[in-house]
Specification:
The chain is 34% helix and 17% strand. The protein has 191 residues and is an alpha/beta fold. It is globular, with a radius of gyration of 18 Å.
């Protein structure tokens, strides 16, 4: 009871819901390890859902973006973004650009405003990655995703920062990921 005899009211704050997308559909990619690492490290404060169905999305077709023709897989994908408090993308660089599967997924959002002002963090983890980083930054900025310099991370030489025996990342990479997630949480803000 409170001082005035009223019962205390406890409000349970829901953990922010983060939708994580990997630009790699390879099961043992370093990008998937990074997302798993974030999911596990922040399990007490964030609810991270790794969306693993990018390969199921059909090729983007502007003729199919209206509600009557939208493919069910695309509708589910867009709904997943709508329901998330934030989006986290982690991708390799393929031929100095984004993997087609990730670019295709983002293209499906163009006919909507689902990413407009959505708190977003991006990680490019690849051998070099600079071109994919620039490309992803441009694409996400174009669709209106809400980002800051703290929510953008380039991890060059990513495979060398992974301990293959334990599937863990080195301390410098973990520190950089902490900064990124802190920045994303700042964008989400309090409920």
């Amino acid at each position: 009871m409170s001082k005035n005899g009223e019962p205390f009211t406890f409000v349970l704050m829901a953990k922010p819901n983060i939708l994580a997308l990997s630009g790699s559909i390879r099961s043992n990619s370093v990008n998937n390890v990074i997302l798993d690492c974030i999911k596990n490290a922040y399990s007490s404060s964030l609810s991270v859902t790794i969306y693993d169905q990018l390969a199921e999305l059909p090729y983007f077709n502007p003729d199919l973006t209206d509600a009557q023709h939208l493919p069910p897989a695309v509708g589910n994908f867009i709904s997943s973004i709508e329901q998330a408090d934030a989006v986290l993308l982690c991708t390799p660089e393929y031929v100095f650009s984004l993997p087609g599967v990730l670019k295709n997924a983002i293209e499906w959002t163009v006919a909507t405003t689902v990413l407009q002002d959505k708190p977003t963090a991006m990680i490019v983890a690849s051998l070099a990655g600079q071109k994919a980083f620039e490309s992803l930054d441009l694409v996400l900025t174009t669709v209106g995703a809400k980002m800051t310099t703290k929510t953008k991370l380039l991890i060059g030489g990513a495979f060398g920062k992974l301990n293959k025996d334990t599937n863990t990342l080195d301390e410098n990479t973990l520190a950089a990921l902490r900064t990124l997630i802190d920045g994303l949480c700042e964008l989400i803000g309090p409920d």
